[in-house]
Every structure is written in C-alpha cells, then in structure tokens.
Input
Amino acid sequence: MSVKILLFGEATRHKIVDDMNRAEVQSQLLAAIGEIAPKTDLAAIDPARPVRQQVDHDSADWLNFLVAVHEKLGIDIADAEAARLRTLQQLVDYRATWQAAR
Output
C-alpha cells in the first residue's frame, strides 16, 4: 500500500512540476539558492546576472544548487549545460526548453 501512495505522490509531483510557469520556476530556483546560502538576500538577486557573482557560492555549493534544482524542478542538467547556465534567466529558459521538448 505505501508503495502505491509513493508512486502516486511522485506522479503528482511531476505533474505539478510540469505545470509551473516561468515565475514559479524562478521562485523555486531562488528557494534553492536560499537553502544553499541562507544569508542571501533573495530579493536582491538579479536574474540577468551570474548567480555565483551575487551569492557566495564555491564550486561545491554550485553543485549542491544544481542538485536542488533537479529535486525542485525534476530536470537533469548535463555538465556541459551546467557550465553555460550561469544566470537565473538562463536556468528558467533551460527549464522552458526542457518542458517544451517533453
């Protein structure tokens, strides 16, 4: 019985993730930043500027952020893509492209 509930819950989560609009995706990305760097003023983050220039993230924090992105948005970001996805706007665009391809 618990397996069925888990599977239903996972399917529901994926449906919710699929239905996110751009603002909701950006909100989830900001939440992920807040989890990794809790002292960050999330309201001051400029979506067009590289995140690592605005937040005190080292490379391990950045990897943790990408893991959080996967958990919150259900997308995998390949290493080659991760290197070019530096801003929140680029991440939102990547998520939109991923969603459109599904």
